[in-house]
Amino acid sequence: MSKYSSAVLVFLAITMSMCGKPQATSSLDSAAADKKNKNRNLLYFDATANFKRFSFQDSIRYYLVKSKDAGVTDVVVDVKPISGEVLYPSKIAPVMNEWAGFTKTEKFDLLTAFIQEAHQLGMTVHASTNIFVAGHNHFNRGPVYADPAKKNWQSLNYTPQGMTPITQIKTKYSAMVNPALPEVQQYELSILKELVTRYPKLDGVILDRVRYDGLESDFSQASRQAFEKHLGRPVAKFPADIYTYSKDEKPVRVPGPLFKQWVEWRAKVIYDFVYQARTELKKINPKLIFGDYTGSWYPTYYEVGVNWASKEYDPSATYDWATPTYKNYGYAEALDLYTTGSYYFEVEKKEAKNINVTTVNRTEAGQGKGTEDWYTVEGSAEMAMKITKGKVPVYAGVYVDQYKGHSEQFVKALKMCRAKSDGAMVFDIVHVINEGWWKELKRGLTE
């Protein structure tokens, strides 16, 4: 989600129809959707940024009490960061017991502690899991580094310099894997199922990084074969039929004849996984809140292979990268909760005129450098509500560190999230702690 990287549900019936694609219909009219899923305020607890702090059980309760007092209703505990390790006793994924030179010594189950302490305070607990990533490139750490059997899972990126494994691109901190590989999907599903089975009192799961690394991934032979199967015919020139690079000093992508079909296929890969994950997890715990996080920059989010809109929204009417059938792979209907990163310093749409594209902090996947009003908290939240069509509660989110030195803008952003969506999401508690912004957090979430 960043560089650091309730309980009544709207039941969705999953069926196999319409060209064999899984579709979802709600058993309730969307206007009568569960109101308890609205007016939430979610606070993230990042795994690595807070590893030492939450290796002590009394620290967990201390910060949960402070969060509750500040108006937080839901805590999101990051239990599977981008390193591909987990913060609970897994029999499938490697367990993180050490980070940044600190080794956990207290013998307690972190997620159990969060669930018990938060429930005593009347708070809801979601576990956040990073899906299609299995390594931290800045530390050469994670399954794609440590496990020879998983080395070939990593994304193969088509760059101006040629085909490059992502572990060799150290400007990227996330060692993303190829979502189209069946073995990758089954591995990630097995971890999710283990998590939900192990913690029956867990209220929800929020998926993160259910996406491709970017437009340049994945160009492995496995992806080519899967794409050809989707098309029903061979691709004569790969990857040139998808795109090429110009010969300029600063090469730019030049779309090929199959570019739009490639964009649609990638969205289908993610769509299919989201529905499968929902189905599998609901079998284990029908009351589980099935959630997802993505960035809010929908007009460029196709670059990471994700269509988080409702099927009722047709982007091809507005954007030239979308086919008329791209809308079939919108997965808003699959979700019980959706939170989006309205990660902009500018809060009101009228502030868009002040955007300086040479200085803005936009380093998230697929995030562009534009000055449209959806590059503001207000504009992005409005867009998210518009294109999800009321199919799922939406929580616009802020990245606290973007407001460093500007506490009033932080408060203003939180209030805007609540005004323009169903509540607010705050990433991350570490920044609130570092800035000492507990009073500001409370103002933003309660006033």
Keywords:
TIM Barrel, single chain, two-stranded antiparallel sheet, alpha/beta, 18 strands, 447 residues
Describe the fold and architecture.
The structure is a single chain. With 447 residues, the protein is an alpha/beta fold. The chain has a single domain, classed as TIM Barrel. Helices cover 29% and strands 19% of the residues. It is built from eleven helices and 18 strands. An eight-stranded parallel β-barrel has the order 3-4-7-12-15-16-17-18, surrounded by five helices. The protein has a two-stranded antiparallel ribbon with strand order 1-2. The two termini are 27 Å apart. 51% of the residues are buried. Residues 66-291 form the Glycosyl hydrolase-like domain.
Within CATH, the superfamily carries the name Glycosidases
**Could you give the count of β-strands?**
18
Unreliable stretches: 2-33
Mean pLDDT level = 92
**Would you give the CATH topology?**
TIM Barrel
CATH class: Alpha Beta
| N-to-C CA distance | 27 Å
Share of helix, binned: 25-40%
Give a brief outline of the structure.
About 30% of the residues lie in helices and about 20% in strands.
